[in-house]
Structure to design on (482 residues):
C-alpha cells in the first residue's frame, strides 16, 4: 500500500505476477494435529505463507482476574518468527501483533461455545514461520482448525482470506508484492454456515463498487477454504470405516 | 453410553456440519439453528431413535456426577485438598469426604502433594464447580503400580462392551487395573504389568478399528512369557 514500483502487477490479460487470475487464491494446504503436546494443532500453507497454530484448553484461566464467571475466555497469541520476513523481524510482541492477536481472539469467540466452560481459558498460539502477505487470515484459518482438532465445542470453523486492489484491479488473496505496492487490502473472515462476518478490516482506499466486488470474491474463496479445512480435519480421523465405540 | 443405531455408518463430522433438517431432536454436542441441527464438535455422527448427536473424538474431560476418576493431589489446604483430575477445573476434596478422621490443619498427614487417589465425582454444578469424594467402596490412595494416561474419549474402548476388554486383560495378565473415566489408568502387577501397559497403549493407538478385543487378546497371548504357558499346559 505504501511503496512505489514500476512493476506490472496485473498484465493486459488479467494475469498476476505469480500466474494467478484476479479471482484466484493461492494454493492452500492444511494439516490438522501436527503437534503431540498441544491439545489441538494445525499447520497451514497458503502460497508462501507457512503458519503453525496450537491450542491448549479449556483449562483454568491463569491471571485469575481475567476469569469470566459466565464463559470461557479466548487468549490468542500471534507471533512472527524472526526469520519469517526478509529483513529479520525484531522478536517479541509489537503493536501489529497485539492487534492481530486481539482481532483473531474476537473472531474465534463468535464461534466457540464459550458458555460451556465458565471461568476457563482457551489458549491459542499462532506462529508465523514464513510470511508473504495475508498472515492474519492464514493464522485465523489455522487457529480455527486447531480449535476443532482440540475437540473444543464450536458452532462452525472460520475460514479467512483477503481481497484487495492493486494496479487498478480488484484482486483476491494479495501476495507480498501486491500488498506492498497495491492500493487496498481487505481481510475477511466469515462463519460459513450463516455467512456472518467475524473479521473485516480495510487498509487503503477503494470505491464502494470495488469494495463490494472484493467482498464477493472473498466470500467465495472463504467457502472454498472452508471445504479444505473440513477435509483436513476429516483426513486426520479417517482411519477406518469400521464400527467403533463399544460399551 | 447409549447404543448406536446399527444401520448408521461411521461418519466423521466437523463443527458446523449439517446433521439433520427433517425434524429430529438434537442430542449431545449438536445445536439447532433455524430448525436445522448442526454438529457442535469434531466427532462421529450418532443417531439414536429420533435423536441425532455427535460422539466427540477428542477434547477435554468434563466430569459428570458418578464418574470414577484417578486424581493427583496438587495443593493442600487446612481443610481440603485440590486434586487434578484432568478437567479444566481443579477438584477440591474436602476433609469430610475422605475415609479418615482428619483434624483441622492435619490434612498433609493423610494426603500429600503428588499422591494419587481414586475418586468419585459427587456433583458438578451449573458453574462447573466440582465436588469429589473418597468415601465410597473401593476408593483409596494408590500406591505402587503405574499410571497410564490416554484421551478420555478412548476409555470406553479400554472397558469394552460391558467390561469385556478390561476383563480379558485382567484375566490374561493377572494385573490389578483401575480405569478412571478421565483417561488415567492404573496398572499394578508382577511380571505382566508391562504387557498390560502395552495392550492399553495398543488400544489407544487403534481405538478406531474394529475387532479390537480379539486382536488385543492375541497380542497379549503372544507377549506372555512362554514358560508360563508351558506350565499351564502341563497341569
Amino acid at each position: 500500500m505504501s511503496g512505489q514500483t514500476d512493476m506490472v502487477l496485473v498484465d493486459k490479460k488479467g494475469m498476476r505476477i505469480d500466474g494467478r487470475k484476479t479471482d484466484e487464491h493461492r494454493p492452500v494446504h492444511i494439516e490438522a494435529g501436527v503437534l503431540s503436546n498441544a491439545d489441538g494443532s494445525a499447520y497451514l500453507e497458503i502460497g508462501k505463507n507457512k503458519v503453525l497454530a496450537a491450542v491448549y484448553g479449556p483449562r483454568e484461566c491463569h491471571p485469575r482476574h481475567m476469569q469470566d464467571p459466565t464463559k470461557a475466555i479466548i487468549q490468542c497469541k500471534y507471533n512472527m518468527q524472526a526469520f519469517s520476513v526478509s529483513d529479520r523481524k525484531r522478536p517479541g510482541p509489537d503493536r501489529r501483533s497485539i492487534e492481530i492477536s486481539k482481532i483473531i481472539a474476537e473472531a474465534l469467540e463468535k464461534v466457540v461455545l464459550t458458555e460451556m466452560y465458565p471461568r476457563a481459558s482457551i489458549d491459542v498460539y499462532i506462529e508465523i514461520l514464513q510470511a508473504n502477505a495475508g498472515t492474519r487470515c492464514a493464522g485465523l484459518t489455522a487457529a480455527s482448525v486447531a480449535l476443532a482438532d482440540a475437540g473444543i465445542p464450536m458452532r462452525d470453523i472460520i475460514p479467512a482470506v483477503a481481497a484487495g486492489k492493486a494496479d487498478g484491479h480488484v484482486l483476491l488473496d494479495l501476495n507480498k508484492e501486491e500488498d506492498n505496492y497495491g492500493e487496498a487490502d481487505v481481510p475477511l473472515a466469515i462463519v460459513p454456515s450463516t455467512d456472518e462476518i467475524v473479521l473485516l478490516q480495510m487498509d487503503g482506499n477503494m470505491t464502494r463498487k470495488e469494495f463490494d466486488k472484493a467482498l464477493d470474491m472473498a466470500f467465495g474463496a472463504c467457502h472454498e477454504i472452508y471445504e479444505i479445512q473440513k477435509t483436513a480435519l476429516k483426513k486426520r480421523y479417517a482411519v477406518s470405516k469400521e464400527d467403533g465405540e463399544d460399551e | 453410553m447409549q447404543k448406536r443405531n446399527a444401520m448408521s455408518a461411521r461418519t466423521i463430522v466437523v463443527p458446523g456440519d449439517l446433521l439433520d433438517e427433517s425434524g429430529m431432536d438434537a442430542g449431545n454436542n449438536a445445536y439447532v439453528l433455524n430448525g436445522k441441527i448442526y454438529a457442535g464438535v469434531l466427532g462421529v455422527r450418532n443417531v439414536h431413535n429420533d435423536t441425532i448427536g455427535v460422539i466427540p473424538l477428542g477434547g477435554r474431560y468434563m466430569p459428570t456426577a458418578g464418574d470414577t476418576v484417578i486424581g493427583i493431589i496438587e495443593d493442600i489446604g487446612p481443610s481440603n485438598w485440590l486434586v487434578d483430575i484432568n478437567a479444566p477445573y481443579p477438584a477440591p476434596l474436602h476433609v469430610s469426604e475422605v475415609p479418615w478422621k482428619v483434624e483441622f490443619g492435619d490434612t498433609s498427614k493423610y494426603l500429600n502433594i503428588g499422591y494419587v487417589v481414586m475418586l468419585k465425582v459427587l456433583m458438578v454444578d451449573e458453574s462447573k464447580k466440582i465436588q469429589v469424594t473418597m468415601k465410597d467402596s473401593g476408593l483409596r490412595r494408590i500406591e505402587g503400580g503405574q499410571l497410564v494416561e490416554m484421551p478420555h474419549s478412548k476409555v470406553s474402548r479400554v472397558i469394552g462392551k460391558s467390561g469385556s476388554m478390561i476383563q480379558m486383560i485382567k484375566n490374561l495378565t493377572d494385573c490389578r487395573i483401575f480405569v478412571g473415566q478421565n483417561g488415567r489408568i492404573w496398572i499394578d502387577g508382577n511380571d505382566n504389568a508391562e504387557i498390560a501397559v502395552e495392550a492399553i497403549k495398543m488400544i489407544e493407538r487403534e481405538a478406531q478399528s474394529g475387532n479390537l478385543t480379539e486382536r488385543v487378546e492375541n497380542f497379549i497371548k503372544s507377549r506372555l512369557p512362554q514358560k508360563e504357558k508351558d506350565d499351564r499346559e502341563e497341569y
